[in-house]
Amino acid sequence: MSGPAAAPEPPGRGLRxxxxxxxxxxxxxxxxxxxxxxxxxxxxxTMGVQTGVEHLHWLFTGTFVFTLVTVPLxxxxxxxxxxxxxxxxxxxxxxxxxxxxxxxxxxxxxTAAAAAFFIWLSVFNLFVVSLFWSxxxxxxxxxxxxxxxxxxxAGGTVGALAGPALTAALARHxxxxxxxxxxxxxxxxxxxxxxxxxxxxxxxxxxxxxRPIGGAILAGVSLTLKLPNLRAIALLVICYSAVSTVLYVExxxxxxxxxxxSGVRTAFFAGIDLTVNAxxxxxxxxxxxxxxxxxxxxxxxSLVPALVLTGLTLLTAWxxxxxxAAVQTLHRAGDYALMRPGREMIYTTVNAESRYKAKNFxxxxxxxxxxxxxxxxxxxxxxxxxxxxxxLGLPAALLxxxxxxxxxxxxxxxxxx
Length: 417
Prior knowledge:
The chain is mostly helical. It has one domain: Growth Hormone, Chain: A (Up-down Bundle). The chain has 13 helices and no strands. It has helices at residues 20-51, 56-80, 83-106, 111-139, 142-170, 176-195, 219-226, 228-258, 262-295, 297-315, 321-347, 352-383, 388-414. Helix 8 packs across helix 12 (352-383).
């Protein structure tokens, strides 16, 4: 953005002149993107339960292997495709995949297709969301991110409310293929919105959006290992995904034992999604900006793991579908409202190659590698009759808390709020 510097604004103020159109496009794009995904998430969870809880670690392993194959392919695309065309190209490919799955399910595909869809969605939902935030980080400065990311994230939450609401209403009445077609249409609309976003103020070391980013295909790996900010984000993701995997497996087991009908299971998972996203929206509109601007990123990145640590401690004494769903709701809502926007604020301080390649590597390969490792560890613990919540969930949550506070404090010391 060019022009004379604006006069200092009160720290609590949100939108400023000239920002409405960009925020509206980002809000709308995230709304459509997460509405598209959350139509499918309950379907994926139901397919996971149908394969059997004892096989979930194989699904997580398949997801990780597929991620390892996909990351270098994405790196090659980032190297060669202009940044302005990158998001439409990737989203178009995902839409084509959705149409293919819709055709397969309409033809009566069985368990193998269900497992393939579980793995595919688990990978590509990370790619499309990661690419969304890369595009947004290109379009807003660090200072703007502190004021505006809560609002933009709220757009995704509204979409994440609409998606499971549609699935809960339709799951008992329409085929899975119809849900996939609805999701594909929404994703196409999201791509149109995001294509309208323009780059913000240039950053040192950035290349013009008219040219590809270039660099090595696997530069995301070396950048993540080299830069302290990126290593810290990777550790936050590892801790978060370890807790997520523990809760997911325990909840899938509890739901599978409590509900025999697949339609009822889908509706139950959709109900969890609705609750998560209603709580997330409330936090994003009322809390994210206030917490970051008044207490700093150290508060935003440590509050959620502190609450989740408390919830996991309670689960060691009281286990069941409903208490597990309650802790997972807190875990996911806190991530969407505070942890994820907080991590994205850190990405505004790095260059374009880090925002696209390293971010994608962390959001996909690191995330899914830890998913797979955690799933196997959970399976081993459960197979030995041990408590995965106490032996894996609690230590991961404690490390998450300590890392979040340290990373947030370092950001607060170096970046203006």
